[in-house]
Amino acid sequence: MSKGPGLFSDIGKKAKDLLTRDYISEQKFSVSTYSDTGVALTSTAVKKGGLSTGDVAAQYKYKNTLIDVKCDTDSNVSTTLTVTDIVPSTKTIASVKLPDYNTGKLEVQYFNHHATVTTAITHNQSPGIDLSATIGTTTFALGAEAGYEPSSAKLTKYTAGISVTKPDSCASIVLGDKGDTIKASYVHHLDVSKKSAAVGEITRRFSTNENTFTVGGCFAVDNLTLVKAKLNNHGKLGAILQHELIPKSVLTIASEFDTKALDKTPRFGVALALKP
Question: pLDDT band for position 3 (50/70/90)?
Answer without folding.
Answer: confident
